[in-house]
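Researcher: I'm comparing several assemblies side by side, and this is the next one on my list. It has 766 residues spread over two chains. Same procedure as the others: predict the full complex and return the structure.
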Amino acid sequence: MRPLTFRKLFFQCFILAVILFFVVILALKFGAVPVSLYALGRDLLRVLLGQSSQISSDYGLIIQNIRFPRIILAVIVGASLSVAGTSFQALLRNPLADPYVLGVSYGAAVAAVLGLVAEPHLALPPALAALFTPLCAFIGAAATITAVYFLGRRQGQIESNTLLLGGVITGYFLSAIIVFLLSTVNSSNTRGMVFWLMGNLSTSFQKSVYWFLAAGFLLATGVIYASANDLNILLSGEKEAMHLGVDVRRVRFVVYVAASLLTGLAVSVSGAIGYVGLIVPHIIRLIFGSDHRTLLPTSALGGAIAMVIADTLARIVVAPNELPVGAVTAVVGAPLFIYLLRRRLA
Amino acid sequence: MRIGRGPATVIGSNSRKPGHPPLAQRPAPFARKGEAGSPRVSRGAFFVSGGISRRNRGGFLKKFLPSRLHPAAFAVLAVLTCAAAPAYAQSATHSSPEPPAFREVADELGRTIRIPQQVRRIVSLSPSSTETIYALGLQDRLVGDTDYCDYPADAQKKTKVGGATNPSLEVIASLHPDLVLVTKLNRLETTQSLAELGIPSYATDPHTVADILSSIKTLADVLGAPEAGASVVEDMQRRLDDLQRRLRDLPPKRALFVVWAQPLISTGQHTFLADALRRAGAVSIVNSSQDWPQVNLEEVARLQPDFLVFAESQPGNASREVQKLGTLPGWKIVHAVRDHRYAVISDAVNRPAPRIVSAIEELARQLHPEAFAEKAGDTKKETEKENPPARPLAFAPFSWNPPHSPHGHSSSTGGCLCGR
């Protein structure tokens, strides 16, 4: 393995970070409410100078309270899904692995739907009530990923194909449960439930939620990154990795748990957004190679870029109405995936 | 086809199969051969099949039936014969000596349907039709309705045919209705399947409040109760006129009708809901040609509605919802949320039925209390004064109609589930 030069890692991340920066600026500019670049720049400067209290215009408030939090959410969700996808693909040595294939999103959606049904009947304080559905979704995601983990175990070992198949079947099962719930539950919430299946970043959260998400993302990504070298070795095969002194079981467990945590966090605030965790790692690999020491941070940045672009499109294509962002990622993602697939085969 | 009908008839007439997959999703390969949509043709087929079921009770075909018949076709046959058995029974027992006279009427989707001169047995597939039937005093003719039909309370006791989007065709057929009332809530497949079963369905599709009135009137005529229809519609019109007089000189309040908060879904301009808002002295800030648009919160923050309007089947939900939204940074900058300026009305507003006028009145009272000030007895109903920034929320009980179960609202959303 070639030694990792810090310069290379820095260079790759720097390029993507610059792209992300400009994408975020554009995402801040475009939206249902028109904002001039000048006004945007002036307000951003004020924020940087710590004078955010001077922003009093309605537009400034909208950007500060609605658009910016939403973009941050897109960044975290995109990065989380992408890192989770990269990890699952390496872990299971299968290019098809991604958080959705493993059924996690459906587990989250089932729990979210149940939460939406139960919420009006529980007399929760308003602040907790706003958090209740995401909490349910996270618990659902965690429960599903645990169940799939045990489905994928054979004689104490994780077996890639069994795990993937177990995830796929669990996903089918859970999506059937969702359909069942949607068609039987007599609740005023059916419309909101449907949105858990389509992915949606328009939900507004308390500030603490964003900090919590960011902390969870950094923690889990850090844990995975610590095993980046082991993941590289694991790509050459399990036995080989074992002979080279990698504790395969430990790496698998740790990375699996961390990637699941990332998925659960992302799904709990955004619903089921497909394709980002699948395609972004592939694109990044094509561009920058498959060394996980660079792949993990670059695919995090790539996922963030992709998600911010997708969400901006979802906001502006039919403005002032919105599209579910999951529809945008699927419409763009599926043809892109087919293109990559054909190119690889050619 | 001839072979197929025999055994299925036997099975169908002996036992209902409530669990089999919904008919509408499974095309019936041969049922389409008959002239779909022509009640007479299919009805004839029923009598034949009913006759067969009488004569042909043997199970001789059972053993090769599974291999010959596609399961879907089997399911269809089961349903067909479910319809057939009572159809036969009825024609044998209490049909009049002279053949029933049919007449042709056009429904609001422009379809021409053939119905008996006297419509005696009605199945309603939407809460609004059920309410209309009760308002017309025709409840004795209502033989079945949906799980969502919760008003009046008596409607809950009727035979349930399932939900609006997934009713059981078997149950409908077994009720042997002369007419099934459908709306936008129902799926097209349901009406098509009904047509194949020879059951006429009458669709109502009002887009404005005026449409609702004319729709009720026409429906009353079709059902043979023109006097009741005229008096119901006259009463609605009188109350609407009164409302219009009171609100004539008042500028409309700018309102956001919240169908669903996160993600924010409101109502488009071509819905009767938007028109109901106008009648109540409000104008929706959402100007979308979609019926149920997902609206960007930025747009709401820019337009700053005077009021948020919620339609609730359970009192208290809306106040919880607003408190919840008040904790979120994106919603806090909407002044109506910050100042608790919201109006809550009965979910009757979602239903194109006579009761919508009461909901419109409720809304008008909350948005324009000054217009109703001279009536001392009504002051209780005033809940919202304009722009009271720090005033604690005074939540007056508005006139809830008798026991509500939390079904109503979903009926209005059900139609969109399939649309999306």
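Model: For your comparison table: DSSP finds 14 helices and two strands in chain A.
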